[in-house]
Design brief:
- This is Olfactory receptor.
- The chain has about 325 residues and is mainly alpha-helical.
- The protein is built from 11 helices and 3 strands; from the N terminus they run βααβααααβααααα.
């Protein structure tokens, strides 16, 4: 597999190093994380769609965030789990590699956009509560979600196209557990400096561009909350934001370290660790962050558990 691959039609993933016993242990850990991620986010989607108490813009956005988290982790983790069970390297066709790269970048970009939208939503509800229902009406919320999804998919067409216009002649072995762009650039025998620079600028535009409205919103939010005379009212106002802010800090920090760097071809082990945080840990934390820190969601979950218990008891 070290000949000339100028017309590569498949790639091989090295995955994780170590013995097969270690791979089995990793499989059990990652399978647990993935199962909880899918189940937890599915529960959030279900209760928001079913319970009328959660029919508000904040939970409407949360449903789409949960859908994105399920999709993002499902694009990478099942492939990774399958590779952990099989000895040797896993083969990916060119079409599979292109599809995986495009989908996780597009969904990740949509995720960033939606987090920024959720921050603005929190700003409006706290800083302009009397105008909240008129500003964040159902039409506005729907269009904000549509634009987030559309921006995610449209903005990643050129980066993926440019990546696969390169000539892969060094090897067709990717030292990763998914079709990573940095590893693809390493395999190219073309001069990738210009492509990497453009990709860097796009990453800055997407990630920092989503980070700025989020931070501006929270600057105004904190300033407004601190002016509230009642301590209990302050705590109640903070409680509506802490879940979203916690998720923002985790998600943005991980992707900032992975993508906002001039040199995309960084050390494989570093990329693997940060990628695990993005594809495994962050989606896993999402249901806990938005349920354990949200009294209204916890109340709906408790009522749901009670109803299920009564049905089983009868």
């Amino acid at each position: 597999m070290m000949e000339n691959y100028s017309s590569t039609t498949e790639f091989y993933l090295l995955g994780f190093h170590g013995s097969q016993e270690l791979h089995y242990i990793l499989f059990m850990i990652f399978f647990f994380f993935y199962s909880v991620t899918v189940m937890g986010n599915s529960i959030i989607i279900t209760i928001v769609c079913v319970d009328k108490r959660l029919q508000s813009p904040m939970y409407f956005f949360l449903v789409h965030l949960s859908v994105l988290e399920i999709f993002i982790t499902s694009i990478v983790v099942p492939v990774m789990l399958w590779a952990l069970l099989l000895p040797g390297m896993q083969r990916l066709s060119l079409a599979t590699c292109v599809t995986q790269l495009f989908l996780y970048l597009a969904l990740g970009t949509a995720d960033f956009s939606l987090l920024a939208v959720m921050a603005v939503d929190r700003y409006v509800v706290i800083c302009n509560p009397l105008r909240y229902s008129s500003i964040m009406n159902s039409r506005t919320c729907t269009w904000l979600v549509i634009m987030s999804w559309a921006f995610g998919f449209l903005s990643e067409i050129w980066p993926v196209y440019a990546t696969f216009q390169l000539t892969f002649c060094k090897s067709n072995v990717l030292d990763h557990f998914y079709c990573d762009r940095g590893q693809l650039l390493k395999l190219s025998c073309d001069n990738t400096l210009f492509t990497e620079f453009v990709l860097f600028l796009m990453a800055v535009f997407i990630i920092v561009g989503s980070w700025i409205p989020t931070m501006v919103s929270y600057t105004y939010i904190i300033s407004t909350i601190l002016k509230i005379p009642s301590a209990s009212s302050q705590r109640k106002a903070f409680s509506t934001c802490t879940s979203h802010l916690s998720f923002v800090v985790i998600g943005f920090d991980c992707c900032f370290f992975l993508y906002v760097k001039p040199k995309q071809t960084q050390a494989a082990e570093y990329n693997k660790i940060v990628s695990l945080l993005i594809f495994v840990v962050t989606p896993f934390l999402n249901p806990f962050i938005f349920t354990l820190r949200n009294n209204q969601v916890k109340e709906v979950l408790r009522d749901g558990v009670k109803r299920c218990y009564q049905l089983l008891k009868d």
